Amino acid sequence: MPRSYRWVILAVCTLAFVEVHVHRLAFSPLIPTFVAELGITYTTAGTIQTAYFWTYTLFQVPVGVLTDRWGARRVMLVFLSLLGLGTVLFAASRTYPESVGARALIGAGAAAIWVPGMRLITEWFPPDERGRATGVFSAGGGVGGTLALVGVPWLADRWGWRLAYGATALPVLALLPLIVVFVRAHHSEGGGARGATAGALGRVLATPAIWPYNLTVLLAYGAYFSMVTFLPAFFVERLRVSAAEAGLLTSLLTAGTIVSWPLAGYVSDRLGRPKAVYLASEVANVAACAAFALVGPGLAFAGAAAVAAATGLVAGGMVTPYVMVTAMFPRELAGTAMGVLNASCFAGGMFLPVILGRVVDVTGSFSAAFLVAAGVQAAALIAGCFVREPDPTRRAA
Question: How would residue 198 be classed by pLDDT, with cut points 50, 70 and 90?
Answer without folding.
Answer: low
